[in-house]
Request: fold
Amino acid sequence: MAGLATLHVVCLPKKTERHHTYNLIATEYSKAIAKPKKTWKRKVLCILGVFFALAIVALIITAVMQNKPLPKNIKYGIVLDAGSSHTSLYVYNWPAEKENDTGVVKQVEECKVEGNGISHYFQEPVKAGLSIDACVTRAQQVIPANQHKETPIYLGATAGMRLLRLNNHTVADEVLSSVENSLRSSPFDFQGARIITGQEEGAYGWITINYLLKNFVEESSVLNLLPSFRKTETSGALDLGGASTQITFVSDEDIETQENTLHFRLYGKSYNVYTHSYLCYGKDQALRLQLVKNIVNTRNGTMWDPCFNPGYRRNTSTSELYSSPCVSQHTRFTTTPVNFEIKGTGDYQLCKANIQSIFNVSYCPYSQCSFNGIFQPVLQGKFGAFSAFYFVMDFLKVAHEKATLEDVKERVQSHCSRPWDQVKADFPKIKTKYLSEYCFSGVYILSLLELGYGFNADNWKEISFLGKISGSDAGWTLGYMLNLTNMIPAELPPSPPLSHGVYVGLMVFFSVLLLFIVLICWLGFRKPRCLQKGII
Ligand SMILES: O=c1[nH]cnc2c1ncn2[C@@H]1O[C@H](COP(=O)(O)OP(=O)(O)O)[C@@H](O)[C@H]1O
Ligand SMILES: [Ca+2]
Reply:
């Protein structure tokens, strides 16, 4: 009881009525009255602490409220790839505020136009425009209506139209006008329909794959500190179409021909790039060249062709064969149109010999060449092979990394020797045109890469066969749009401000830390207002 009473007296140092404890109380009392300022200071400190804590809480609330992520503003872009064999429409989208970042543009739709490529409408150019209408309508369904007006739409035509222009400039212009009229009457922002050059086709394909593979900007990660993890290398691009093929890669060597040289400055880095487009060496035109070489094997209206499966038959004519500018320069076997039937023999070695005869590797006016007297520096780095390179290797099941050059050769050889009936029975859903040409295409790809470009058993492993990269098709269209919409800056944009999530996280972390420090300080400064029981 005495203890309690004493405690009460000490806590409230008023005049005490208990005389027997007076001495002790007097000591504490004198301490209390001797320092009245300290109590006052403590109170102020307490009040300040509370204000400080409230201020921090207010700061967090303000930060979270004020720094809300911007409502996502998605932009769209459309590119039509008017290839020699068919036209595809691609819809891309990207978040508006990130358009200068790498790898943010994504393909959201591919619409394949029914029928042939636009160059096939040379006899009725108006139909070229009509052919693409269905896909333009599809794009209208994919893109929100309020964005149609501001969505750019581009059409780029490739080697099929280059060949048509060589044959008949006026008709090529009429076909282009026809597709232009169609696109102009769409609700989108028409930005042009033109024949792109082979050099552009190579360059944009290279930009596309390196953009999608995120090879232009080093990712800031701890792993990048280790040399083996640094992602500074770009990948070369190999594009095989129906009428032309492109090879594009960074070279440290002197590029001896100006028409094969490209200089890029992208995201603060300079690139010295070699590119060449071989018109007539796309796989459909190369097949014609092979057939022309093989015409000597025609007897009694039958041409025995080693590049088709045994048992395969197809009707054709010399006029059909010679209708392309790629073959008209070759000596005609006959001037009168002759119908004949192609019959496959599936002979890999003979097919290879026929195909190799379309590559001239004996003439080179430079220090080194690929074929047909075209300069090519030494192959350098990794390569991404797409379009028909991928379709064919994927069908033959050798598009994966583990397949060696020897494996691919064996696979192609065994496919070529298979009877056509069996092949058809195994793949009833694949278009006959594609299915019947996989033997030729396999042998052609091997010859182009080995004899033409100089790949061998060692550097074969540097080639990756690419269909899609992160959901977007490997091809020239994305690079074309990125370039025309200025989405690839020459210099690295200033490092982006913290993302909303990181910003809020840091705010909360430091506020909690501050609160914690204030609490510790307060506890440190704070003197117990009461004496402990033990003192008495
Ligand atoms: O699924 C497929 N399997 C085999 N080949 C295909 C497939 N899809 C497209 N192709 C081929 O890919 C090539 C594409 O060429 P494209 O039409 O782009 O010509 P270009 O680039 O020379 O103008 C054509 O030879 C076409 O036959
Ligand atoms: Ca193409």
In short: The chain is about 40% helix and 20% strand. Residues 83-86, 117, 158-160, 241-244, 282-284, 387-388, 391-392, 434 surround inosine-5'-diphosphate (ligand 1) (CB under 6 Å).
